[in-house]
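To fix ideas, we now present one chain and its tokenised fold:
***
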Amino acid sequence: MSRNSQEVPRPPKKVSQTQLARELGISQALVSLVLNGRRQGINAETYDRIWAHAVKRGYRPKGMHLAASPAAKARQVGIIFRAPLRLNTPSMYFGHVQHGLHTGIEAREHTTVFLGAEDQLEPPKLRRIFAPGHSFHGIVLVGEVTRGFLDQLRRLGLRIVAVSARYPGLCHSVLGNEPQALESLVEHLVALGHRQFGWLGGNVGLGRHEARLQALTAALARAGLTLAPRYTIKLKEGDRIDGADAVRTLLPLARRPDFPTAFVTYNTLMAAGAVREFQRAGWHVPGDVSVASADMSPIATESSPRITAAGTNPEKLGEAAARLVLDHAGTPGDGFTDLMLPAQLFVGDTTGKAN
């Protein structure tokens, strides 16, 4: 061969499953199962990690096209609501979470599929949805589900992210900063001269209610104040009608000298109901009593009157969940991520100086 002649480039050396396994620090048997499309019983992060590394290293199995692999097809994210929520629930807080989630998923060239609520998804239906060869990359749980239902989902081997609920050591989560939200509400109301507080709670039994009530109690204690049990209402649901019912329950106590000058509600729906009931009874809000919400949603900022509220923007929670469910960076040894987003205070028309 002459000096000027060019050497013929050698074909790239084929990458074997054994080599991939060695580079990943896992067994060749596991690599083989994943690259042959096996999902059942395999951690979702491990599954994605193996495929991502195989594609990066140029793995080309005989008679198999990576573009047609299960990993390449997994372009959908399933959304499941807590029971008994439904898509047609009017003015639903979690509807705004879903909007942010859909926007974030779509931006990453995936699609969202609403699968229903927990009480609509019996084991046979789950098996049909997640039959071998399904196209789901992961699942986002919107609201708090039971441990038994979560265990069913975990057996699918998919990446799971919970929004506004936390399951330590079981799945990822995205939460609003409840202590920060309630601290800002108490500071705002105390600055207006309020010293007597009441709590209108809903969705009792869910972690969100307990977190908000505990955060309110702690924030009041830091201000040298307490929450009287007689003015602490805990209801099963947390809608407008429940806020109104809570106020009707307390109005017979209105002549007591310790009756609250400010009420904090579990959410903006209950705040809206409470304001309406106070007004119906002839009270002026905020002239006679102030009402504030322990979560933030467009219901607070767009209603009339606008409701003073503190919490995390629900669309931001959805966007964060989208990033977390599609994150490939983690490895099984990294554990699970509990992401907490900051809260903000919105001062509306329903809080004013104490009498």
